[in-house]
Each structure stands twice: as structure tokens, then as C-alpha cells.
Specification:
Layout (H helix, E strand, L loop, with lengths): L1 H9 L3 H13 L8 H13 L4 H13 L7 H13 L3 H13 L8 H13 L3 H13 L3 H13 L3 H13 L7 H14 L1
Helix pairs in contact: 1-2, 2-3, 3-4, 4-5, 5-6, 6-7, 7-8, 8-9, 8-10, 9-10, 10-11
Amino acid sequence: FFKWCKRAAEAGCSEAMLLLGFSYFEGVHDVEKVKAMAVMWLQRAVAGGDHPNALFVLGQMFIKGDGVDKDVTLGVEYLEKAADLGHPVAQNQLGMMYKDGREGVVQDVEMGLKWLEKAAEQGEAEAQNVLGRHYLQTEKYERSLPYLEKAAAQGHPDAQFGLGVCYGHGFGVEENLETSLDFVLKAAEGG
């Protein structure tokens, strides 16, 4: 596998570059785990085409300094490219970074909510939960409930607890202590 994959990558096949990069990143397919080689091949792959998963991994590596010198600006650039290509986890991570001002990113709540909404539209439960909790805390209950319901339906314990709070206090719904308790117990079981 390695020999043929490397040949194809060296010949310019971006899919082979991608596979080789992920193999070095994970240490699979009889390839030793070498982060520097992973970065090199993933960067070559993304230079040759749209590869949101590679962009996401590169973003993570540069933000965390995982196998590379930490470079948050470059990491955010990679994440934004992945997010623009529809990568829901990249959208969620960018949303959290901008909303809360994490990882050295200047806080921009509006930008954060925009990315979180894109991730939530694709079914990303964590983004749905964060949006639901945000709108709950800002007392926009009608906006909060659909996000919490979608995340809770996917088994997200924080969203289930949030729904328990809504039903327990009548936030955006008719107060119902039995339903509130059901959601709180589901959250306790899952978290």
C-alpha cells in the first residue's frame, strides 16, 4: 500500500497525498506516525484541491501546536477554508472560538453565531446545544427551543438538561414539571 500510495502522491495525485497524510497522522496502513510528514502531505493535498477533512486536521494541528509550531492565525485560516466547504465540525469549532474569544481569536459573538448556525443546520448536536443555551441565556426562548430539541433528540445531555430547565420554569413552553423531570433524568443518564 505505502509504496503505491507514495508513488501516486509524488506523481501529483491529491487523493493519494490525502491518504498518505492521514496515514502519517494516524500511524495506520503500515505507516509510522510522523506528524511532520502528515502536515507536508496534507498541505500538498489541499494545495491541489478542496479537501475539507485535511483542512480541518491542519487547522487543529496549527491551533494546538500538534507536531508543528503553534500558529493560531494559520490554523484559523485552515478551519475557515474547511468551514466554507461545509465541514460541520470546523464550523462548530470556529463558532465557539469566535463566540467566546477562544484560542487567541478576537471575540465576535455575531460571527460565532453565524458559524454555529451553519453547523447546526447540518445536524451538529454540539452547535445546536450551544445555540440553544445561548438563546436560553439571552431569554430568546422561541429561538432556543428548536435548537435544544434537535440536540436533545441526538442524546446531547446538556441540551436535555436545558429543556428540563425550560419546562421547569415555563421558558418558551407551558410549565410542565413532569416533562422537566423526564429531561433532567435523561441528561443525568447521558452525562
